[in-house]
Amino acid sequence: MIELRLQLNGRDERVAIEPAETLLDVLRGRLRLTGTKESCREGECGACTVLIDGQPVASCLYAAQAAAGRRVETVEGLAAGGELAPLQRRLIEAAAVQCGYCTPGMLMTLTALLREQPEPTAAQVREALAGNVCRCTGYAQIVEAVAGSVLPAGPCGRAAP
Ligand code: FES
Ligand code: FES
Fold first, then answer.
1. So what's the pLDDT on residue 149?
2. Ligand 1 midpoint to CA 30 (Å)
3. How far away, in angstroms, is 153 Cα from ligand 1 center?
4. Secondary structure of 75-105 in the HEC alphabet?
């Protein structure tokens, strides 16, 4: 076993890990942060997305050791003081959550997008979510929750009919 030190959701964290463990397994299995979901384990679905130094990463393919000294953010870190983050509320209000399995990964990817682009277009949201699979919603409500419209902007910046 080796000791991994990282900054996790704003706090210094130490955890004993096996050298070959993935970050996903350390988060879920050792730190009991089960908000980050496991699905394909092949980097294809995005369910396991977390932020490392602000960038979305598939934690199922990320060696936990590589997170040493880095800033890791999971879905558990989004709500503060018992209050959901605005993005979380927007997804709920837009009915963009059905089974919810993809939602933690979506939230992390979208959190990174909104930090860089606070008012993204529908196309930018769809591009950002290219690596996040949702089998329930058809994506429309998710895009609408973030971009305000699922439709591409027409002339004058208004949503096309
Ligand atoms: S479980 Fe990591 S990308 Fe699917
Ligand atoms: S809400 Fe079910 S997979 Fe996205």
1. 58
2. 18
3. 32
4. HHHCCECCECCHHHHHHHHCCCCCCCCCHHH
| pTM for the predicted model, two decimal places | 0.91
The residue with tokens 């932020």 is: 51
134 touches ligand 2 (CB under 6 Å): yes
Q: Which two tokens stand for residue 52?
A: 């490392």
For the chain, residues with pLDDT lower than 70 are 149-161
Is residue 110 a part of any domain in this protein? yes
Q: Are residues 69 and 94 in the same domain?
A: no
* Nearest atom within ligand 1 for CA of residue 41: 1
Query: What's the CATH code of the domain at 135?
Result: 1.10.150.120
The answer on 72 and 12 residing in a single domain is yes
User: What is the per-residue pLDDT for 148?
Assistant: 80
Distance 139 CA to ligand 2 centre (A): 9
Q: Which helix (H) or strand (E) holds 55?
A: strand 55-58
pLDDT of res. 82? 87
Of 59, 77, 95, the domain-final residue: 77
pLDDT at 156: 42
CA of 38 to the centre of ligand 1 (A): 6
Per the domain annotation, does 66 fall within a domain? yes
**Ligand number, closest to the Cα atom of 62:** 1
Does one domain contain both 63 and 130?
no
